[in-house]
Structure formats: C-alpha cells, structure tokens
Amino acid sequence: MTIDIEILQFLHYHPLSTRAEITRGIAGAPSDSTMKRLLSAAVKNGNVESVGRGPVTKYRLTAQAHLTMPLDLDTYFDRDIDEREVQESFNFDLIRDILPGVRLFTEEETSMLADAQKLFRQSISDMTEQEYRKEMERLGVDLSWKSSQIEGNTYSLLETERLLMEKQTASGKTKEEAIMLLNHKDALDFILDVPDYLAELSVHRIEDIHSILVKDLGVDRNIRHRRVGIIGTNYRPLDNEFQIREALEDTCNLVNSKENVFEKTFLVLLLLSYIQAFTDGNKRTARITSNAILIANGYCPISFRTVDSMDYKKAMLMFYEQNNISAFKKIFIDQFLFAVKTYF
C-alpha cells in the first residue's frame, strides 16, 4: 500500500486530523516535509480538503475520495461486527447531495468499459435474433443461478439449467428454491420481451420487477412499513414507509439524470440494496433492474457468474457501513468484462 493511500485511509476513519496527527497515525510515516508535500498534492487532486491555516490546519476527505478510495475487504472484515466503526443509519445526503457530484468511474475505467461495450455491439451485429436470444437465455441461466445463490439458494448451476430449461426440479431441494429460480427466469423473459421497459426508471417499475421475483414466495409486494435488520452489519435501513418511497424516488431521479449507462446501472445495484425498500428480495431486484437498464440501452447484461458470493456480500456491506464503492465497483467492472467475453 502506498503512503498516499495510507493517508486517505487514515483520514477516512479520523476526519479533521492535523498533519502531526496523520504522521503519528501512519506506520513508517515519511518526514514532515514529505508529508506536507503529499497532503498538498492530495488537496490539489481533489481527494483531500483543508480546514484552517498554519500548524493547526486540519484535513478531511472530499466526498469523491470518501466514496471511491480503495478499502481492502479482508482487512476491513478482520474486525468483528461490533468492532467496526460504521455509519449505522441511512445517509440522507448520499442520494441527493453527494452522488450527483461524484465521478463513479475513473477515465481509465470508463474507457475499459466502453471498449468492452464496443466489442459487444460488434459481436451481436452479426447475430440473428434467434442466436441473440439463445445467448441471452444462456446468460439468464447463469444469472438466475448466481443471483439466487447469493441469497442462499442451494441449487447447483447444472440443476438450475435443468429446472429452467426442462422444468425438472432437483431432489433434496425446497419448493421455494425452485420458485426463486423460476421467478428469475420470468423476470428476465419479461425484460427481453419488453426491452425498453427500464429505459426510464420509476418506482412503479421497480415494484413490478420485485413482484415478479417474489411471486409465490410469501413475501409482501409493497414497500415495507416496518423495520428490517440486515445480517452481518449494524447498519439500519430506513423504517418509515414515506421516507423509503422518497428515497426510491430520489434514486430514480438520480439514475434518470445520468447519461452514462454504466453509472445508471451501478447506482441501481448499490442504492436499491442500500434502501432495502421491501421486506425481502431487494438485492435480487437490484440485479434484475440493473440488467434491465443495460438491455434497454443496448448494453451487455451481467450474469455475475464468477463472483464469489461472500465477496459480493462483503462489498455491499462495505457500502452500507462506509458508503464506499471501491470493492463493489471492482466486482461490477470484472463481471461486465466477463460477460462480454463469455456470452457474445
């Protein structure tokens, strides 16, 4: 880890620290003159802002750095749930005030994603409608399997394929597991049949996707009006129905205001999971809704097939607790590149 990253990580947990406090808090800290130069560079590049003047000057992260600076998942989760310093309640400033002004992807990341998308467009340009639908079907099996596995479903990929393609249930599995997988297929079929359904995001359309995903699973279809907890974290989502709806509406406005399709998709994945608008099925709804946006805009959908389920959960918890996107952004980019390479 470079010293400039160590400075950012120290300020992440110790905002408004003086140069002397930063120096004392970093192992193997450089000389005072080097620290002064590093902090000046961090201020200049927009990662750090200073408060005050002279020896009592204090430093803190900018909103950009707080959201995007690298935080290591393994190091972070070495600490038990009650030992982690977390933001325990919903951040009301995040959607309206912070995210609109933050660059979610660096220029290099944007270029990498754009090049992959060009490759996808070239690949499908020679496909017949039948060939395209067949590849989407293959991707859909993988997405249904992985999306369900992240939520604890025990069907294997092969068993999922048999269920979705041949309606053959696996022995030793629950009825609910099969329903969860079949609901994924229904949601994906709906999106492919109405590809422009999520060209513009709305609360009503998010609710529609959720309704398909939780059909026959004994889950309330409406926005919840009672408190929910999330296993593995002390973060507490909103528990007021009107505030939840307002947060969803703010999310729709933010997503619709973005021109970059990758930003739209990434925000949906993060924020629908963060808001937890429903009693269950929130992350499944986020994954399918984000793919619906990709499809509506002619982009390659994502199956998440090779992501480790625990890494996915940890990256999402990192966002809940620290409002930091670095770990989840890496998953998103890796999975988009994988999808382009693997399916088309």
Describe this structure in words.
This protein is mostly helical and 344 residues long. 60% of the residues lie in helices and 3% in strands. It is built from 16 helices and three strands. Strand 2 and strand 3 form a beta hairpin. The model has no long low-confidence stretch (mean pLDDT 94).
| Gyration radius from CA atoms, angstroms | 22 Å
- The separation of the N and C termini measures 37 Å
Strand content: under 5%
Spans of at least 5 consecutive residues whose pLDDT stays below 50 are: none
Shape: globular
**Mind describing the biggest β-sheet?**
3 strands, antiparallel
Helix vs. strand class: mainly alpha
Concise description?
With 344 residues, this protein is mostly helical. 60% of the residues lie in helices and 3% in strands. A three-stranded antiparallel sheet has the order 1-3-2.
